[in-house]
Amino acid sequence: MAKPDPAWKQFGRHMRSHREALDLRQVDIAKKIGVVGSCYSSWETGSRKVDEKYVNDLDEHLKASGRIAEEWEKAHRQVKTPFRFAELPDLEGAATQIREFQPLVFPGLVQTEDYARSVFEDIFPGMPSASIEELVQARMTRQCILEEEPRPLTLLLLGESVLHQQVGARGSGLLIEQAQRVLSEMESGKVRVQIIPRDTGRHYGSGGPFRLYTFADEPSVASAEYMTGETVISDKDRYQECVTTFGLLQGEALSEAGTLQMLRELVGR
User: For residue 100, which of 69, 146, 132, 63 has the smallest C-alpha distance?
Assistant: First the structure.
């Protein structure tokens, strides 16, 4: 059996949440929309995609006021998108605070166009250039939230190796240009950045990159990258684990002043 897709697992959790709020069983909703109980159960576990023809009926019988249809569209987009980050603009656009740990590359919100292009070329070798450009432009569009008022408080934790990791075989000039972009965003107050030195005594980020999102009127969530995409973490316990890890990483990081100095030294070489 194929492994459940994270996007449909997340959609299934939304279905279950609405059903349980109504104090109904899976079989109750299955009967209402004309499917067998095992089929409905597979939707909630994410092991089977919900066919579009059932979406409106689900929304109606789960009394979701359009939320089920909206979440189905998000899951559908996420599965179709090559980089599987279709949900990120929705999260970032609604967030009042974004915290990100990135040990591999400069975060997407502060990437230059050339750096983003190089990253995608490395991730998707052989992808047609037109498809690469679509991904680059989508990433540039995401950065608009840093130009808006009010903008989210954005705190980025970077592993020091990010400053030295070559991408796209374009040489050190690309890294210097990228570091200059981050300096500019820091000096303008759009983002706050701290670097975790390579020689730090402890490193709590071996689990990989992740983000924390805080909203004004919704529960906080996290998202974590894996090889072919990203999954949203809404479970309270798992979210709290991410918060704890971020705090431990921040404790090992340089101050913002120390980070500015390190970036200026890199740019000035």
Answer: 146
Distance between CA 253 and CA 26 in Å, rounded?
48
What tokens appear for 205 in the block?
Answer: 């980020």
Contacts of residue 235, Cβ cutoff 8 Å, sequence gap at least 6: none
103-124 pLDDT, tens digit each:
999 999 999 999 999 999 998 8
pTM of the model: 0.69
d(CA 34, CA 11): 20
Q: Which amino acid is at 269?
A: R
- C-alpha to C-alpha distance for 221 and 205, rounded to whole angstroms: 18
Preceding peptide of 150 cis, ω within 30°: yes
Q: Is 81 exposed, middle or buried (0-12, 13-18, 19+ CB in 10 A)?
A: middle
d(CA 115, CA 177): 9
